[in-house]
Write a structure and sequence with these properties.
The chain is α/β, with parallel strands linked by helices and 204 residues long. It contains six helices and eight strands; from the N terminus they run E-E-E-H-E-E-H-E-H-H-H-E-H-E. The strands form two sheets. Strands 2-1-4-5 form a four-stranded antiparallel sheet, with helices on one face. The chain has a four-stranded parallel sheet with strand order 3-8-7-6, sandwiched between helices. 33% of the residues are buried.
Length: 204
């Protein structure tokens, strides 16, 4: 971490625990992510990375411990947390019968983007993730890399302050991995987005 550190962390978890019956998936983890950081969460399959992300994005209530994201409690203030974050999880929730453009317009509507802004915002994001030429094709015909890039675009529709990426490059070829990291780096550098990502690849 270079430069002056911000005083207040943007995301913080203390003694976060997730149990499934007798099995402890996450055992008292502490996490602190500061504004503007790209925070890498490294570990092998089964280490609890995805479960931690699910708790921090309000999709899974922790068994014990506390977490605040964007200044909001993930258990008590879920809607406020979701208003300031974007998330691209391991399993992209994409409809194979819809086009890429359809997905972005739907997401824009769900996020409360004004009618006038939906079309230009969708096109801006399609351009940024390199899907302009495929925008009007059904997602069922997309490659794995194209689906991951569309999922990233969907996570960015409402201009989140914090972006969660759960193993975003798993299964991608080197060209798709490189393109995704270029866009993530640009988001952090130019848009000031704080990035929390999980990966099993040490080089990432």
């Amino acid at each position: 971490r270079g430069g002056r550190r911000m005083v207040d962390p943007l995301s913080v978890a203390r003694n976060l625990v997730m149990r499934f019956g007798e099995f402890c998936e996450v055992d008292g983890i502490d996490v602190e992510v500061r504004r503007g950081e790209s925070f890498g969460f490294l570990g092998p399959n089964g280490a609890g990375k995805s479960t931690t992300v699910l708790m921090l994005t309000t999709l899974l209530p922790p068994t014990a411990g506390t977490a605040r994201v964007g200044g909001y409690d993930v258990v008590k203030e879920g809607p406020k947390v979701r208003s300031v974050i974007g998330a691209a999880l391991q399993e992209a929730a994409l409809d194979p019968m819809l086009t890429g453009r359809d997905h972005l317009r739907l997401q824009s509507t769900l996020q409360g983007i004004s009618r006038a802004e939906r079309k230009p915002r969708s096109q801006e994001l399609l351009d940024r993730v390199g899907l302009t030429e495929a925008a009007d094709r059904k997602v069922g015909g997309y490659s794995g890399g194209m689906k991951r890039r569309l999922d990233l675009a969907l996570a960015l529709v409402h201009r989140p302050r914090i972006l969660f990426l759960d193993e975003p490059t798993t299964g991608l070829d080197i060209q798709s991995r490189t393109a995704l990291w270029v866009e993530v780096a640009r988001l952090a550098r130019e848009d000031g987005v704080t990035v929390f990502l999980t990966t099993q690849y040490l080089e990432e």
